[in-house]
Design a protein that fits this description.
Blueprint (H helix, E strand, L loop, with lengths): L1 H9 L3 E7 L7 E6 L6 H15 L1 H11 L6 H13 L11 H5 L5 H15 L12
Antiparallel strand pairs: 1-2
Helix pairs in contact: 1-2, 4-6
């Protein structure tokens, strides 16, 4: 991840992160802020090249497979509250995002609810929150 971000910085792009995601405590979140120069194809090509150079396409899936995720304890009450909004009582014993999500009646509503809670609890996270479960 550091190699990827260093590559993008080397091209002059502003980056944020990496920061460990509180949704799984394993994903390294990052933002690369695209320029407003009217050259999106150049930006996308550089993004893809830096991704290949850092080998993220192989490293991230292997890391995720070897490291099970766990929802940050500071978000567990929020996850329970998001379920409660849908009229669901959490079973108890949940550890990761998927444990909560599978109980939700409306998955996208649960995602939106917990994403909002995550941004409120962790205001310094990069803007885009990726969820793997």
């Amino acid at each position: 991840m550091t190699r990827f971000l260093d590559c993008m910085r080397g091209h002059g792009y502003h980056t944020l992160g990496p920061v460990v995601s509180p949704l799984d405590q394993r994903l390294l979140m990052r933002d690369v802020l695209p320029p407003h120069d009217g050259w999106p194809d150049v930006f996308n090509a550089r993004l893809a090249a830096c991704d290949r150079e850092a080998n993220l396409g192989n490293v991230e899936p292997a890391y995720f497979a070897a490291h099970p995720g766990a929802l940050d304890p500071r978000l567990r009450d929020d996850a329970v509250a998001c379920l409660r909004r849908q009229g669901i009582t959490a079973r108890g014993g949940e550890t990761d995002y998927g444990d909560y999500h599978e109980q939700a009646r409306v998955g996208p509503d649960f995602n939106d609810c917990l994403t909002a809670a995550t941004k409120a609890e962790f205001p310094d996270l990069p803007g885009a929150i990726t969820i793997f479960y």
